[in-house]
Structures are given as structure tokens and as C-alpha cells.
Design the sequence.
């Protein structure tokens, strides 16, 4: 199933670098770990975890956690929102030997609980490997609220990343917990923590809807 490769901010850089990337990411070390998206806690019953672990403990990289709440247009928390996430590993690869976002090894799906909350733990992604023009490091995110299309929204970015584009920073300014540029703070057991809330936008859901896993 095909999925859109990049968020708006990363797309152009990816397209410029994709051909070079695909040709140069060969003969690399084998993947360290297979896909891990095991539920850490299931607040809504079997198969619908509200907390997941995208990267297992054996995955190299700086561990980080993210949590937040999804709100509706009425500003009330929305339960049962499907959140799909995918990212590079800590060396900038979605997959190996060829890095392909559509086959991202580090990915997972989480659903908001009865209070609209979600959480995931993973390793911090990296700038794309072997790509001349790199976007800021990011985690892609798709939302599927009940009754609305599965759609992409702005990726998670990380405060302080020197590759953040000024436009991304400007758009995120003043949004508080709704900002997609997240500041990771110290957390328990060496796992840095960030917060991002979402506000469902039905118009955006239509505009950014995924068709057969791909962008319209
Ligand atoms: Fe990406």
C-alpha cells in the first residue's frame, strides 16, 4: 500500500534527494531490530492501545516519549481517534537497504482513550541519511477521527533542530501544546518527554485525506 512520503515541509527536500538516497543506501549494516509496536497499555480493550512502544528497548538511539490529547471542534476530547506514526531510525533510515518511507520499520498505530489521550515511546529520529538536502528530523503522523477521513497533518518536529525551516517555526509559534515543534524535556528513566495536542479540523481532514494509503 502506498503512503505519501513526506509532510509539506519535507517533501521538496525528499524529492530532490530521493534518487540519490535510493542509489546510495546499499551495503549498510543489517537492521538492528524488527518492527516493534507492542502495546504498553491498553486502555480501550484488545487491539486498540492508547499507549504504544514504536521502538523496542534494543533499538539504538536516544529514547523519547510523546503524549497528548486530541480535541474536537467543540474543544472536547475525542476518544477513538486512530493515530498512525512512522519515522526514521536514529541513523536516518526508514528501512534498509534502501530507505523507503512506505516501508518504514519504525511505525505504529495508537488510538485515543476515553479522555482523548494518546502516548507513544520511541527513539528520536535523525536527519535523512545520505541525502544532500535534508529536512528537519520528524515523525510523520496521520489522524483518522471517527466519521472523518484518514488524513495527514504536520509532522512532529523538534525544537532546536538547526534544519527547521523558519516557516515551520513561525507557524508553530504561540500554539503551546498544539505546536508541532515539540520541546523534549527530561523524563523518567532517561526517556525525554514531549507533548503535542491536536485539534481536529474537518476541512483539513478532507483536504489532506489519504486515498488507498496515499495522498489525493
Ligand atoms: Fe519523512
Sequence:
Amino acid at each position: 500500500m502506498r503512503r505519501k512520503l513526506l509532510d509539506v515541509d519535507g517533501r521538496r527536500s525528499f524529492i530532490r534527494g530521493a534518487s540519490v538516497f535510493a542509489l546510495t543506501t546499499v551495503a549498510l549494516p543489517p537492521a538492528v531490530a524488527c518492527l516493534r509496536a507492542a502495546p504498553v497499555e491498553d486502555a480501550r480493550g484488545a487491539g486498540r492501545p492508547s499507549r504504544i512502544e514504536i521502538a523496542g528497548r534494543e533499538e539504538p538511539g536516544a529514547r523519547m516519549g510523546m503524549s497528548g490529547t486530541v480535541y474536537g471542534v467543540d474543544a472536547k476530547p475525542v476518544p477513538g481517534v486512530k493515530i498512525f506514526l512512522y519515522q526514521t531510525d536514529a541513523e536516518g533510515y526508514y528501512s534498509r537497504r534502501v530507505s523507503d518511507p512506505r516501508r518504514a520499520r519504525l511505525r505504529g498505530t495508537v488510538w485515543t482513550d476515553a479522555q482523548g489521550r494518546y502516548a507513544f515511546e520511541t527513539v528520536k529520529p535523525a536527519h535523512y541519511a545520505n541525502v544532500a538536502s535534508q529536512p528537519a528530523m520528524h515523525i510523520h503522523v496521520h489522524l483518522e477521527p471517527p466519521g472523518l477521513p484518514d488524513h495527514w497533518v504536520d509532522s512532529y518536529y523538534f525544537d532546536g533542530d538547526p534544519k527547521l525551516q523558519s516557516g515551520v517555526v513561525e507557524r508553530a509559534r504561540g500554539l503551546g501544546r498544539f505546536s508541532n515543534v515539540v520541546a523534549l524535556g527530561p523524563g523518567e528513566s532517561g526517556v525525554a518527554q514531549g507533548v503535542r495536542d491536536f485539534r481536529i479540523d474537518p476541512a483539513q481532514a478532507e483536504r489532506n485525506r489519504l486515498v488507498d494509503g496515499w495522498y489525493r
